[in-house]
Amino acid sequence: MAIKRNTKIQAGFTMASMTDIVFLLLIFFLVTSTLINPNALKLLLPKSTNQIPDKGQVSISIKHYQEAGTFSYHIDGNRTAVPFDEIEPRLQEMLEDTHEPTLSLYVDKSVPMEQVVQVMNIAKRNLYKIVLATSPE
After folding, report:
1. Dihedral of the alpha carbons of 23, 27, 28, 32, in degrees to the nearest 10
2. Which of 86, 123, 37, 95 is nearest to 132 (CA)?
3. Which domain holds residue 99?
4. Are 100 and 55 in contact (CB under 8 A)?
5. Is the predicted pLDDT of residue 56 greater than 80, yes or no?
6. What is the pTM of this model?
7. Widest CA span in the chain
8. Which of 115, 133, 113 is nearest to 43 (CA)?
9. Distance CA 109, CA 111 (A)
């Protein structure tokens, strides 16, 4: 005597649980990606093995005198140092008529990051692009 089932087994499955997992992963990645770089400054950092085609219109060099604990700022490779307070007005004067003002920043290895950030803040206030120059490997 053969007993038959009245219900048939279906081979398919529902995607409801899969969409829940996808939405949870999406929320997780959105939250973690905003925590990675909340206040990053946008810099044009050239690689040390390649040369960039366009250099800045104006260059700023920061030299560190470790024995005295002082810093000197030089604009466009000029040997005479410029006081920090005079950098911003000189840059504004030099770059007032340029379409996309760009600064090249040359910094000694021993210069603390605080000094570099001060110059980057000047560029940010005046909407200048910054190219951080490196030496070849």
Report:
1. 160
2. 123
3. 58-132
4. no
5. no
6. 0.57
7. 109
8. 133
9. 6
In a domain, 29, yes or no: no
Residues 6+ apart with CB under 8 A from 126: 88, 91, 92, 95, 101
Q: Which of 105, 102, 111 is nearest to 77 (CA)?
A: 105
Task: With beta carbons less than 8 A apart as the criterion, state whether 76 and 104 touch.
Answer: no
Question: Is 10 within a domain?
Answer: no
**How sure is the predictor about 54, in pLDDT bands with cuts at 50, 70 and 90?**
low
Q: How many structural domains comprise the chain?
A: 1
Instruction: Write the CATH number for 87.
Output: 3.30.420.270
Rounded to 5 degrees, φ, ψ at 53 are -70, -35
Q: Which helix (H) or strand (E) holds 58?
A: strand 58-65
